[in-house]
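Case study 2.
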Amino acid sequence: MSKQKVKCLVAIVNRGKGSLVADICRSYQIYFTCGTLALGTAGSELLYYLGIGETDKEMLFSFLPAGLERDVMYEIAGRINIKKPGHGIMFTVPLSGISTLFRQKVMCESADKEEYMEQAERKYELVVAVVDHGFQDQVMDAARAADATGGTVFHARSLHDEDASSFLGIRLQGEKDVVMILSETGAYTGIMQAVNAACGLKTEAKGLIFSLPVDHFIGI
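Prediction:
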């Protein structure tokens, strides 16, 4: 019997609505939500067409069992009228890999051996590490030692730091550094393992490590 998947929920909502999205996630016992400020950059007509008419946005990332995907998204859509043009967009992304302890906490599962999700026929994967603020250099040092060529960092904040700390049994900072590393498929598992060993949940960095599938890209 295959295990239920973990998915990444991405919500881009008008500034000031992020706390409501976080509250809805909390009501489903989803305690891993990070948010950052964002700006819409397309023309006004296109922004309106996409449902993100105001340029001042909050972008939120949350991690949830696939079985809750529809219920959570429908409730968020209903509470903030996300289906109405100009109120935001929301989508989920499948994970191609996730550190075991992180997965167990999201899924409320007992401990098991380290594992990664099945690998599709892709050339590249996006490895993501969400760590306490100030640990981005340690993430990149570990990634480079596993043959990563570089990464991109942005700042975010946890919207559930107290809940997540209680749920995990460890102290988490509210301020986060998010490190994204584009990797060849043959190398991404080694990079994840190296970053997880150096900066995972059991370390001072308290990192949440996962990877996302990449289908098409330009610039490599």
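The longest helix spans residues 185-199.
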